[in-house]
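Duplicate of #3305? Posting structure anyway:
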């Protein structure tokens, strides 16, 4: 089964324009993502998908592969679908371009789940929520699943609702969805050709469109949530993590 990793990267982030090229430990964020994803053993190929020449130049400068895509895509998923070109079968992994510490083992696990059972249309990941601040944060997407680890629903709200105890505990009940996906190629084509559904429009979560059209989405338990670079503050925290890990020897 052919597998390809695609890292969508655009310049025009609302909260942090140009974050893909923001410097972290002496390297642009997109290079961290590319090098970490490149350590995954189950990817046959890896590429950055962008519509911006500045990002293209930076990626090619460190030897990365780039696929130029249209500048009209509404989501990273649509960009991935264009970037895989004429692939008819196999698995495409959508790797967030703002996750500098993405876990290569998680990428391998997602691909492995898709290879082990062809009934899955998609695979994604989640980690336990231990902090009530995250629990009540609408930017932290929650997920619930069934006995097969098949996703039942995703929401920015707190799900499930604990009728008897409210939200006094987070222990083993609430799960944070991580924005990494492995898609069966045929299903990816179907997904991007389907208009958004009502729940997607309300929650602003495109994975709800996948559920709406009957997707079987496998949810894997990840080791950690990592850190996404959505704001300059996130970049500073990522830099502090690097400094701490290297004993203060990493350049900012």
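Output from current build:
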């Amino acid at each position: 089964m052919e597998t390809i990793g695609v890292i969508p990267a655009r310049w025009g982030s609302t909260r942090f324009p140009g974050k893909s090229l923001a410097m972290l430990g002496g390297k642009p964020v997109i290079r961290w993502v590319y090098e970490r994803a490149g350590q995954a053993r189950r990817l046959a190929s890896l590429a950055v998908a962008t519509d911006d020449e500045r990002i293209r130049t930076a990626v090619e400068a460190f030897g990365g592969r780039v696929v130029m895509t249209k500048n009209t895509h509404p989501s990273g998923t649509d960009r991935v679908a264009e970037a895989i070109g004429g692939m008819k079968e196999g698995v495409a992994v959508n790797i967030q371009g703002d996750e500098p510490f993405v876990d290569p083992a998680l990428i391998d696990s997602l691909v492995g789940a898709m290879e082990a059972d062809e009934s899955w249309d998609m695979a994604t990941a989640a980690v336990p929520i231990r902090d009530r601040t995250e629990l009540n944060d609408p930017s932290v997407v929650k997920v619930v699943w069934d006995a097969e680890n098949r996703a039942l629903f995703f929401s920015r709200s707190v799900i499930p609702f604990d009728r008897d105890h409210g939200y006094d505990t987070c222990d083993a009940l609430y799960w944070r969805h991580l924005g990494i996906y492995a898609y069966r190629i045929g299903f990816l084509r179907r997904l991007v050709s389907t208009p958004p559904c009502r729940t997607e429009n309300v929650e602003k979560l495109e994975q709800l469109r996948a559920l709406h059209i009957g997707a079987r989405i496998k949810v894997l338990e990840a080791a950690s949530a990592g850190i996404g670079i959505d704001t300059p503050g996130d970049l500073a925290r990522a830099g502090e993590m690097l400094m701490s890990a290297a004993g203060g020897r990493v350049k900012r």
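Confirmed duplicate; merging threads. The two ends are 40 Å apart (CA to CA). The mean pLDDT is 93.
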